[in-house]
Amino acid sequence: MTDNGTQRRGRPGYDQVGILRVAVAAFNQYGYDATSMGVLADRLGLSKSAIYHHFGSKDEILERALDTALGALEGVLDEPESTRGRAADRLDHVLRGAVHVLVEQLPYVTLLLRVRGNTEVERRALTRRRAFDKRVTALVSEAQAEGSLRSDIDVRVVERLLFGMINSIVEWYRPGGAEDADRLADDVIAVALDGLRMPTSNRVEELLG
Amino acid sequence: MTDNGTQRRGRPGYDQVGILRVAVAAFNQYGYDATSMGVLADRLGLSKSAIYHHFGSKDEILERALDTALGALEGVLDEPESTRGRAADRLDHVLRGAVHVLVEQLPYVTLLLRVRGNTEVERRALTRRRAFDKRVTALVSEAQAEGSLRSDIDVRVVERLLFGMINSIVEWYRPGGAEDADRLADDVIAVALDGLRMPTSNRVEELLG
Fold first, then answer.
1. pTM (2 decimals)?
2. Which contacts (CB < 8 Å, 24+ apart) does range A58-64 have?
């Protein structure tokens, strides 16, 4: 009998968000398909019916988890700083915001990035991801048109490289490490928008041929 | 009876490289664990013993596949252009070379990037990946020390963001698309080393406050 199992019925020790958090960790560790409701119940120290009290199915848990990640990312695009002002500044804000979402919702975004479209829930998530990518691509386009971003690279390639860099954070970022989200966002902006090369040394090289 | 099955014994229609190619495609599609030697034999139209003629085990196929990707990446670091001259130019060469390896060995690198260390073969591959990352990190360090790369970002973060961007190519690159490897390498260098922001507009903004 676990601590949770000894609690009274109707107060199973986990609310919906608590179950979601444990489920997402299990999905990331074992894979969604390999994680049965029985495995989840074991990990939570709950009966399966206690889980079903909160979620109609495993698919519903996945949908909620993916919605958490997608909702947070879409939220960044809807912030005032993402919709007003110069496109380059809006892009700056969106990239920083995305880094924050990745760091703050790390397990949820990790799960989202592994989705391959095997189920209806996964396919809906991929559709939302593509819509997000399209909105960012449109922003890159605007920034090129206003003359603040170089326009010699295809906007879709730019968007993919930017989010390749940002999404890779889930592979190596560990909370409590040397870099917090603000610092990491600064680093991403520094690499992506300003580049690693020292501008002066670069300019001198060019002048000297 | 397939075409291959009708061929004479000892000439099973696939050499080692041919078997490897089909196996890697299957591993990427279904996952390594989910792909049995029986599934591979079906896909190849060969008997299992015909596969065992070339490879001692499924693990050995995986090892060969991962070695193909890792050997190609390590090869880039050993090229003369990666070992002589200014560190910034060597880094430029290594990043371009890595993009070429990804594009040219796409299925092999895709497999490598999914390795999580579940078996001894996978752990050895991860050790080699880490050694590769360390050599690139050392190169970033040298380029910072010689003053050609900005030094306000931790070298390990730089290396991870650079390869986050490069490795993301396996997620979206399709051979025969609009961009070839040379063009894609140019784009990666443009974003990573020079940045997306237009230097002049940037400078004018700064001057105007």
1. 0.87
2. A58/A32, A59/A119, A59/A121, A61/A19, A61/A20, A61/A23, A62/A27, A62/A32, A62/A111, A62/A119, A62/A121, A62/A122, A63/A121, A63/A124, A63/A125, A64/A16, A64/A20
Q: Does A177 reach chain B within 8 Å, measured CB to CB? A: no
Q: How many CB pairs under 8 A join A and B?
A: 126
- In chain B, whose CA is at the least distance from the CA of A34? B34
pLDDT tens per residue, range B75-119: 999 999 999 999 999 999 999 999 999 999 999 999 999 998 889
Chain B residue numbers with beta carbons less than 8 Å from the beta carbon of A149 are 196-198
User: Do you know the residue count of chain B?
Assistant: 209
Contact between A100 and A172 (Cβ < 8 Å)? no
The ipTM value here is 0.86
Residues of chain A below pLDDT 70: 1-12, 199-209
Cα separation, B208 vs B22, whole angstroms: 60
How far away is chain A from the Cα of B205, in angstroms, using its nearest Cα?
10
* Yes or no, beta carbons of A192 and B194 under 8 Å apart: no
Distance between CA B28 and CA B110 in Å, rounded? 7
Q: What is the pLDDT of residue A208?
A: 53
